Amino acid sequence: MSSTCYELPEGLDEAIIDFEEVVEQFKKGEMSLTEFKVVRVPFGVYEQRKHDTYMIRIRCGGAVIEPLQLKKLGEISNVHSSDYVHLTTRQEIQLHYALVDNIIPVMHELKSVGLLSRGGGGNTVRNIMSAVDSGIIEGEAFDVTPYAIALTTRLITEDDSWNLPRKFKITFSGESADCNHATIHDLGYIAKMKDGKKGFKVYIAGGCGAKTGLGNVLFDFIDDTEVYNIAKATKNLFYKNGDRRNKHASRLRFLWKKLGEETFLKKWNEEYDAVKKENYPPLTIEELNSEAIDPNFEVEQPSDQKDFDLWEKRFVTEQKQKGQYSIIVPIHLGHLDNAQAIALGDYLNPFGKNTIRIAKDQNLHVRNILEKYLPNFYNFLKINFKNFNRPLILDKMIACAGASTCQLGICLSPGTATATQRILSESNLDLDVVSDAKVHISGCPNSCGMHHAADLGFFGKVARAPQNHVIPSFNVLVGAKLKDGDTELAQKIGDIAARRAPDLIKETFEAYISKKDNFQSFNAYVRSDEGKEAIKGICNSYKEIPELSEDKSYYRDWGTDNLFSSAGRGKGECSAGIFDLIELDLGNIQQNRKLVEEINENGGSDEQKAQLLKDITFYCSRNLLVTRGVQPKHEQQAYDLFREHFINEDLVDASFDELLKLAETKQLNAFLNKEDQVIALADRLKLLFDVMTPGFQFNLPDDQIIKNAQKIEIKKLNPTETPSATDEALNIKAKTVKDFRGVACPMNFVKTKMELSKLQTKDILEIWLDDGAPIQNVPGSVRQEGHKILEETKTGEYWTVLIEKN
């Protein structure tokens, strides 16, 4: 096997055969969706939002893909998936919309060209990354790509690489600038030379996501022969000590935080000593040949000299190997047409195997091209790639898959990027000036779009709009700096409706371009006080959200005509939207409390203070209603529902009803004498949130349990009628039957959770759901909670779902 690619493990054939048996069991209905998921995800096979379609993620160790491998992937995609292959931010390639019947044929086709998808997902050793220009750039210590390839070859042979507490990500950078994010990975190696010897500075337990963390220095310098031992020891530590019960706190960085630096390093060193006693051989490092191959093509002239000169300026860089050049091939959002993949693979094959790298920004980098063939390559691109010569920033923006295909997505990040591209293209800005800008867009708090490593970053969330509607929105971050010993993650600076995110990007570029002579780079601008204040100002200028009747565009995400829903965009993703809404009101409460404190300390109007206290009362009343399966349509309803579900259920003391009455009757001045009571209500709601279980129950400590003397009488709000349990259709006796027709996402899921919480293990709950988003979404969310879906049966215009409680 060529040293440009990892070696396949010996047991791969048997693993594919075993996987095939699982697929057949699933197709015959002999295996549940959950059981199938447990097997397929570690094989890099993910279910997409479109029913019964799958994404297959292919390992490309060290960012390398050989020309004939790329060609083959285009051919596989033509037959078994979609009309494109997708380049990822983790330097892999994905096939989308494969059917279950296509999964095993794809596995065999991949193997035929030395590729595999195993480890593309799940709690596994993920694709091992390498700097895209390693081996050809001036100033690097040495080429780190062979280390990424060799470590891949070793780790994919080990069974425990597929059964970790959570995903385990490794990367290599060739220089202190940390172009490949070694300082924010589970395990990151930065190449160093010391006394003429190759080695690495090693970082551990970093990572990005909903809770980010910088890596910690493990070694300032370690000999390159220890690369495997370090990875093995880290994997062993993680395998034995990682939290397998809570996937949201199970990454290596959480283990560092849980154990503390001293205990973590003590345990790590114990594992390292044990690994060294095993005397594993060092990795076999095969240096890559970066000497250009001359295919003896007839040298061409560029078809358009002026355009060629501009292309050369934008995308061509001379390598440290004199007379050889690397070329960026821009691929918008990483979507490479199958025909383009096939054509590019065919064209580059005569130039050798060591010619293509996949970049983190989802573009392709071609290397080792002799200067005389640059016009040839330009002519090839002009024929086969429509937008190969436009400003780089238009195709350098990173956007994860978002809610278009990803189960976790909240916002349609690719749609936002495409809209931004269009708006920038229509502007008169000199976009070549911002070619160095890093604009990264993630559809949710998970950092698949690398928003924490951006100059200007965005991650999706749900935001409230007038009349209790919700809209797609982004948190805005600025100013990441990735450098050995001096890394800083991007910091939140504001938020903005998704509809206005492209305008924010355009106006930020406009502000920078007008003052570019004052700053060394776009990064320097966004990190400066001037830049930050400018971006804050842009965010604030778009704070006003029109009502739905005035402008529906705010209530739709980019790339869709459907009104936005916090949970109805696919299976299993209700909870993200729910907690966004909860935390939004908690944030409002906290902000208003701070403003009240400022008025108390510095003075201010009584009218303003009274309004703030009244607003805190409203936010408290609305805050946790979503956990009871209800969502108010107006303010009065929020107070009534709060009485019903919190005061009458002995979660909140009845004395707080006095505040609700003052708010209902708009007696603002009376709140001035109720400040302590309002703050006490806010503290009580925060306590309830803190003790809330994943099942939305409140495990209050004994000294916080209350018993109100009597219930407050409330006018009922059109309760949903509940049909009687029946086993006529499915011959299974449900203990409880609930009709959730007409209940929108995510309320239907919350109501389902509430009903399940009342049942015993193995009890059966029957729910009725509308067609469309409810049936697409709720069963998947229930499965994620660990319960079993026994049946999904369509009855006329609605669905009957039987759930067995875990």
List its salient traits.
Sulfite Reductase Hemoprotein, domain 1; alpha+beta; Sulfite Reductase Hemoprotein, domain 2; single chain; 5-stranded antiparallel beta sheet; 23 helices; 806 residues; 5-stranded mixed beta sheet
Q: Could you walk me through the main structural features you see in this protein, from its secondary elements to its overall organization?
A:
This protein has 23 helices and 23 strands. The protein has 806 residues and is an alpha+beta fold. It has 5 domains: 1-122 and 292-389, Sulfite Reductase Hemoprotein, domain 2 (Alpha-Beta Complex), CATH 3.90.480; 129-277, Sulfite Reductase Hemoprotein, domain 1 (2-Layer Sandwich), CATH 3.30.413; 395-555, Sulfite Reductase Hemoprotein, domain 1 (2-Layer Sandwich); 574-704; 736-804, TusA-like domain (Translation Initiation Factor IF3, 2-Layer Sandwich), CATH 3.30.110.40. The protein has a 5-stranded antiparallel β-sheet. A 5-stranded mixed β-sheet has the order 5-6-7-8-9, with helices on one face. Strands 15-16-17-18-19 form a 5-stranded mixed β-sheet, sandwiched between helices. The longest helix is centred in the C-terminal third of the chain and has 29 residues, at 574-602. It starts with 11 loop residues before the first helix and ends with a strand. Residues 739-805 form the UPF0033 domain.
